Amino acid sequence: xxxxxxxxxxxxxxxxxxxxxxxxxxxxxxxxxxxxxxxxxxxxxxxxxxxxxxxxxxxxxxxxxxxxxxxxxxxxxxxxxxxxxxxxxxxxxxxxxxxxxxxxxxxxxxxxxxxxxxxxxxxxxxxxxxxxxxxxxxxxxxxxxxxxxxxxxxxxxxxxxxxxxxxxxxx
Length: 171
Prior knowledge:
Radius of gyration: 19 Å
Largest sheet: 4 strands, antiparallel
Distance between the termini: 34 Å
Number of strands: 12
Number of helices: 1
């Protein structure tokens, strides 16, 4: 199970395998493809509006073992590994020659967001280490504690321990 704001209404939906449940508890859609073992939700394809879901299905009866779909509507953009029990898969932007993420799982193929085979997949299906680091507000202990006290006491404005404003240098 994962979650994300698939319909851009400011509230997260629950993505439970092939099904998406709206923030009010009603079903948005089900692809009918069954249990999703590993799922990735993000703006995987920047050329399409909204987010996409790369879903891995570990049931050979699921028809498709992997599929990329529109997170809001469930429209399947492409599928592969038909009749295969796929236990793991991955989505990450690992090839700058192709816009958006690349995806793999269940086959020897590496796919771009259009479903085109762009070469052999990486050997790992786990999260890819990087040399890049991104500082977020939640990395700052003062800010993180400030968010915590919002839930247990009188509301006070949270601030990071560093200057955050016009002219701030990159961390």
